[in-house]
Amino acid sequence: MTVSATPIASSVDELQEEVRELARLRDAVILAHNYQVPEVQDVAHFVGDSLGLAREGARTDAPVIAFCGVHFMAETAAILSPEKTVLLPDLDAGCSLADSITAEQLRAWKAQHPAAVVVSYVNTSAEVKAESDYCCTSGNAKAVVESVPADREILFLPDLYLGLWVERVTGRRLTIWMGECHVHAGIRPADIERWQADAPDAELLVHPECGCASQCMAFGNETTHILSTEGMIRFANDSPKQRFLVATETGILHRLRKEAPGKRFEAVSEEAICRFMKMITLEKLRDSLRDLRHEVTVPPDVAARARLALERMVQTG
Ligand code: 13P
Ligand code: SF4
Asked: Going by CA atoms, what residue is nearest to atom 8 of ligand 1?
């Protein structure tokens, strides 16, 4: 189908209207991660964490998914729904954590632990998922690890800090890959300490990918909560407290403030910005819907080997 070009829109409102109209014409659903820029979140049909987005992508009847997130998220949608057209407005929107292990490295690691079960965080390439038994997100890592028979060794990858947190909450020993997300690892214990001194009564919401998470676990108290991004939104909505310190990528502040407008949210580090997430703009989303670009596909043999691990993920927790 050819979609006629509309005049170049200038304002955010006009661009959003253009995007909505193109989505209608394409019969597309727009999915956006909690770290997307505000104007992209506001035009999406669904905003959520990796688990919510994977479930929504699998469940939607729409033949086209415009994915406002990073590459592994679009690949996940393409694996779970091979019949749908999955668009990523900028193919350079990658993930440094996903890049911290290759399928070849994983095969070598597995060869050293031939009896182990592989649990991969969803922040991995399709090829790594194809070598995995289970996938998980920060929203269900505990439940996924608990679903693995207790007598099996688990290779957990690629995030070191998420792995340490899962060990703590499950009481289970994991063999952990030493990868990290540069954005979350960059949030230092000193950032947390400074805020805890300034606002000791605030609730502290910490993503388990944070380098400071292990510090919070060691020194945290009842006001420290280790949560996925969607877990943070739910927690803030349900809590009677008024003030929250947020240790994750700063894009989440938009949704927190939108959904709980009377409450106060502050980033523990204003520098926690994922440049990959910010590559998706309204203009690129508009162009992607207009020209049906850039389609993310996964070779059928890789997708077939990755699907069971991903299906276990969307069905757990
Ligand atoms: P969530 O699944 O908690 O949204 O996290 C995704 C992510 O990329 C964290 O950096
Ligand atoms: Fe990847 Fe980190 Fe960006 Fe999340 S914040 S997408 S883990 S680089």
From this structure: 123
**What's the fold here for domain 12-93+277-298?**
Rossmann fold (3.40.50)
**What's the distance, CA 217 to chain centroid?**
22
Q: Helix crossing, 71-80 with 50-59: angle to 10°?
A: 30
Q: Is the CB of 138 under 6 A from ligand 1?
A: yes
Name the pTM for this structure: 0.94
CATH of domain 187-267: 3.40.50.10800
The residue ranges of every structural domain in the chain are 12-93+277-298, 98-181, 187-267
CA 137 centroid distance within chain: 7
Query: How does pLDDT run across 179-197, given as a tens digit for each residue?
Result: 999 999 999 988 988 888 8
CATH code for the structural domain at 98-181:
3.40.50.10800
Centre of ligand 1 to C-alpha 49, Å, is: 6
Taking only the tens place, the pLDDT of each residue in 292-304 is: 999 999 999 999 9
**Is the distance from CB of 68 to CB of 33 less than 8 angstroms?**
yes
